[in-house]
């Protein structure tokens, strides 16, 4: 029974619609009426700029970390690593589900990538750091937040299955599902990238201006 209550709490934490609240409070708009229509960090970068996009991404990551760490409220999971990992995955998935279908915002949320990252930070920080490195490198090279998210998600699977060779079966399955989910939820972004119509975030402007002058 306690586990069920914590799963529900994790869902509620994940449901905090950061992008929606930021857009309504500071800009008097609903972020879901602009750009891709998603209430996530990527669309916030696209519509409100890198400052607010970074803020939304940070908060959404924190949501994943906090929700996945709720296991500490049950002493049993502090000593049993196997059950703790499985329960953390359940808590994290509840938070991601909350982000995608937020009860506080009419069940219209984002794609859950940042919250997934927060979940990974809580479960296996080193893998999360590697994925962040992939994300930042791709973002630096392309300025596509969507492509950065996709490749970071795929790299999460690669790190878990091959590089760190995680032995926990459920975690390995979860890593594969994460990669598939991120690819499936970004199909429109992938299509726009191939068509050359995907939006880039306005970072590294001075680098781009110097390149244009050359």
Furnish the topology, listing elements before pairings:
Elements: H1 2-14, H2 18-27, H3 41-48, H4 50-68, H5 81-100, H6 113-123, H7 125-142, H8 145-163, H9 169-185, H10 187-195, H11 205-213
Helix pairs in contact: 1-4, 1-5, 3-4, 4-5, 4-6, 5-6, 6-7, 7-8, 8-9
Overview in brief:
With 214 residues, this protein is mainly α. The protein has one domain. It has eleven helices and no strands.
Q: Could you describe the 3D structure shown?
A:
With 214 residues, the chain is mainly alpha-helical. The protein has one domain (2-207). 71% of the residues lie in helices and 0% in strands. The protein is built from eleven helices and no strands. Helix 3 (41-48) packs antiparallel against helix 4 (50-68) and helix 6 (113-123) packs antiparallel against helix 7 (125-142).
State the end-to-end distance: 65 Å
- Tell me the structural class: mainly alpha
Shape: globular
Order of helices and strands: HHHHHHHHHHH
**Roughly what fraction of the amino acids lie in strands?**
under 5%
- Overall pLDDT metric: 91
Estimated helix fraction: over 70%
* Low confidence ranges: none
Number of domains: 1
For the biggest sheet, the summary is:
none
Round the Cα radius of gyration to an integer and report it: 18 Å
State the helix count.
Answer: 11
SS elements, strand count: 0
């Amino acid at each position: 029974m306690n586990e069920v209550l914590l799963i529900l709490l994790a869902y509620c934490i994940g449901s905090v619609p950061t992008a929606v609240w930021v857009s309504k409070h500071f800009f008097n708009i609903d972020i879901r009426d602009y750009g891709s229509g998603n209430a996530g960090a990527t669309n916030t970068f696209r519509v409100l700029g890198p400052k607010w996009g970074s803020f939304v991404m940070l908060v959404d990551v924190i949501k994943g970390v906090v929700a996945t760490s709720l296991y500490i409220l049950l002493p049993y999971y502090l000593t049993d690593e196997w059950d703790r990992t499985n329960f953390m995955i359940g808590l994290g998935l509840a938070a991601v589900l909350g982000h995608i279908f937020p009860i506080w915002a009419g069940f219209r949320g984002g794609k859950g990538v940042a919250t997934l990252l927060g979940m990974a930070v809580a479960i296996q920080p080193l893998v999360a750091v590697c994925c962040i490195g992939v994300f930042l490198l791709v973002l630096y090279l392309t300025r596509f937040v969507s492509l950065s998210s996709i490749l970071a998600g795929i790299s999460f699977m690669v790190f878990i299955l091959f590089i760190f060779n995680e032995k926990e079966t459920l975690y390995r399955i979860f890593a594969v599902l994460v990669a598939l989910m991120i690819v499936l939820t970004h199909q429109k972004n992938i299509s726009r990238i191939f068509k050359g119509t995907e939006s880039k975030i306005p970072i590294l402007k001075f680098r781009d201006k110097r390149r244009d002058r050359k």
